[in-house]
Amino acid sequence: MAKKLCGTNYPLSICFIVVNEFCERFSYYGMKAVLTLYFLSYLKWDKDLSTAVYHAFSGLCYFTPILGALIADSWLGKFKTIIYLSIVYVIGHVIKSVGAIPTVGNKDVHIALSMLGLILIAFGTGGIKPCVAAFGGDQFDEDSMKERQKFFSIFYMSINAGSLLSTVITPVLRGDVKCFGEDCYALAFGVPAALMMVALAVFIFGSSLYKKNPPQGNILLQVCNCIGFAIKNRWNSSKSAPKRTHWLDWAEDKYSKRLIEEIRMVLRVLVLYIPLPMFWALFDQQVQEDSAQICTSCFYELQFKYQKQFSGNLLSYILWIMLNALMILLFVPIFDLIIYPLVSLCRINIRFIPFLCRYPSVNCSARPETCDSLNLGLLDFGASYTFILLQESGTIVAKRMEDVEANNVHIAWQIPQYVLLTAGEVMFSITGLEFSYSQAPTNMKSVLQAGWLLTVAFGNVIVLIVAEGAGLEQWKEFLLFAGLLLGVCVIFSIMAYFYTNNDPEQLDKIFLEDSRWDEDEDDNMKKKNEEIQLNKAGKSTRL
């Protein structure tokens, strides 16, 4: 009997899983918070190359979950997969931190270590991503369905709590702490590495409490062979052959009915997921982490350039970046405790507003003796200025002319949009995690979690294709994605209406009874054979 948490129906083991996820997300988002700026200011890459590598890394992190899921469900099991890939994750962080130490080799060495570290991090974070969520769901018994649903909400809150703290802390560590005579990127990457070590240690510490389901063999090979055999058998069948209710039934000649039914369940869910990347494509237009990353990098790049913080604006800017994560932490309990219960009883595009930014001084290289520094005053992002340098009383003074006015709409007007976006994320993302787990067969839990995460990856791919290929203005992109998502909502609603709910636990019971019946039949046949042999032996003795 699994130990329960403080008299509740929650298993004690989920505490270690939630803390592990919080530390891992802190590690991941903390590293990403300064990654673009590291490319620009430390490796001296241009903006295009930095953006390309950043997006390639982000995409790889969402395509590698399928690899981790296959390893977990087919070979090592979820527990060992999380541990081994977490070790790879830690090694990647350490290599990335070492690559940020100026005294370690030259620029080529720094680039090589950075790329190697990022590749290992991508395989580590992507590989454990579907396994941790599915492993957490495995800890609950059949009579704890409501608790399991709430677990995925708590799990998602831990993700955003880690993201919230790390996105603020690591840039401050990089800018405020100096090492080797410059900004300390080694520390900014080293702190996430330490948090990942803590995550691994916490997960291992709770190993004696975990419920560990063993892997079921090479499930990927079985699935591929079964699908291939069904297609081949259907293609080669004669017209007089009896019809089957489903095309996978053509594999019954070689494969068990249970495997065929499990594959049918997984394919049914994956087909349902086909339209979903469009949600993430639209969601990423306004609150994607990449946009916040680029804005944060630009903000700190100016700070790096002028070696001073922008008075009064850093706090407001950080708070705005934190808005989405803060709302998620607020909305998850509201939806779980108030909105969803009420619904069950009833049965029933705006760009970022620029921040004001004061440039303390700008160096003038014409005549250092008369032009030491220039105070440009308060400048608005989004505006355009022309400065005329005049000499007054022996010093150079900058006279400003505003060519294009800044946007004077208050930034608070974006809060209603963020409320709706965050509410949509809470309902969509948490429900998707729980749905992927509940609809998956026992031996394919991680695989279906990886399928859910692939919708995020393909959503990012759609954004890149449209952004790079179409070359539309920003408001037109917003309108295009909103229109596409509206069409997808109609299509998905029709698909969901005809979707047949999977019940993996009922499937286990049915085939368990069948296996017992088969065993009883085998026992009866053995007894009859033994009786026949005894009768023959008796007759031969009498003869």
From TrEMBL:
GO terms for biological process: protein transport. Residues 519-543 are annotated as: Disordered. It comes from the Eukaryota. One of its GO terms (molecular function) is oligopeptide transmembrane transporter activity. InterPro entries: MFS_trans_sf (IPR036259), POT_fam (IPR000109), PTR2_symporter_CS (IPR018456), SLC15A2 (IPR043381). Its main location: membrane. The chain crosses the membrane at residues 52-71, 83-105, 111-132, 153-173, 185-206, 265-283, 317-343, 452-472, 478-499. The keyword Isomerase does not apply. SUPFAM superfamilies: MFS general substrate transporter (SSF103473). This is Solute carrier family 15 member 2. It comes from Nothobranchius furzeri (Turquoise killifish).
